[in-house]
Amino acid sequence: MEVEYQEEYIRNSRGVQLFTCRWLPLTSPKALVFLCHGYGMECGDFMKGLTHVQIIKFPMYMSEYIRNSRGVQLFTCRWLPLTSPKALVFLCHGYGMECGDFMKGCGTRLASDGYAVFGIDYEGHGRSMGARCYIKKFDDIVSDCCNYFKRISGKAEYMNKKRFLYGESMGGAVALLVHRKEPDFWHGAVLVAPMCKISEKVKPHPMVVSILTRAEYVIPRWKIVPTKDVIDAAFKDPLKREEIRGNKLIYQEKPRLKTALELLRTSMSLEDTLTEVTLPFFVLHGEADTVTDPEVSKALYNQASSKDKTIKLYPGMWHGLTAGETDDNIDIVFRDIISWLDKRSSDQPTSSVSIVVKGDASSSPDPSLNRGQKNYLRGWKAPKMHSAM
């Protein structure tokens, strides 16, 4: 009989960290059984009953709360491989999202392939404290991520490991700004449908921005910004879409005025400074994405000064590449991500080459992506069929 084995640390009411573990059947359980071990004993090894079952080990998941420089309690989590990690991957989630549940699939997949994965819920997001989805100052998010990521990177067991940023949608903007603070600290970034430019199709008129700017000092927290249902627009698979909608940690109300303006200003600032991006990166985007325009990723690719940069556009896929597509499509996306990370986490130097991957084998390179750089078109066939978030 095969079972899934998981471990997790929790804190009791007295603040003491306790080890917990579980053995789960691969189908729906008949009932729940809770183990109470004997004096001086323990559960993980003594009570695992290896003679009766074949255990399938999954990455270790742990969570803890920290306080930022403003005294706000923030939720952090990590997925650790069962052996020494190939490298460290730091997650930057999207607007209104969270790491512990929504990005569990990402953390588990990367940790299963040997990466130590760390996530943090921004202030006001997920399990972290603060007014829900109220971003008073975007740089506060960036600073909180920088401080947490560097604290983890400074641990003795991780000091010699390479460090990669991973950002989805608004998290792509967070990752790029974290990189900007210390460009030489990071070894690369994976950017999934990043928010780093305002598409000309949706850019607000300057007069509208001026009016909203005056109002933000009077009603900064008001939820008055009209927006479409982002979950409907972002996640293609109907079952996954409803599962995501059922996650009550995800913010699903209208954006607050101040928050919307902070996102706008951040996007416009990044748009003006894309040439300052110098780290190796892999940008992925669904061609059918209506939340963040694929042209945004093309602009990043074209303008970034990075010598090692890769772009891949997925025909027919939507915004939620890692969580809202069919299982087959999600597998394709993660294979690409892990392949890119594997090549850059090894001790072997990576050649400075710019790669374009688009469409199927019959596609021709997009002229907008070829500006004096050598492009390589790799054949890829789409199978039939993760707002700034």
UniProtKB/TrEMBL annotation:
Gene3D superfamilies tied to this protein: alpha/beta hydrolase (3.40.50.1820)
Record domain Serine aminopeptidase S33: where: 84-324
Stored SUPFAM superfamilies: alpha/beta-Hydrolases (SSF53474)
Regions of compositional bias (Polar residues) in chain numbering: 361-373
InterPro entries named in the record: AB_hydrolase_fold, Hydrolase_4, MAG_DAG_Lipase
Gene Ontology molecular function terms on file: hydrolase activity
Ranges where the record places region Disordered: 345-376
Pfam families, A to Z: Hydrolase_4
Keywords: Hydrolase
Protein name, UniProt field: Alpha/beta-Hydrolases superfamily protein
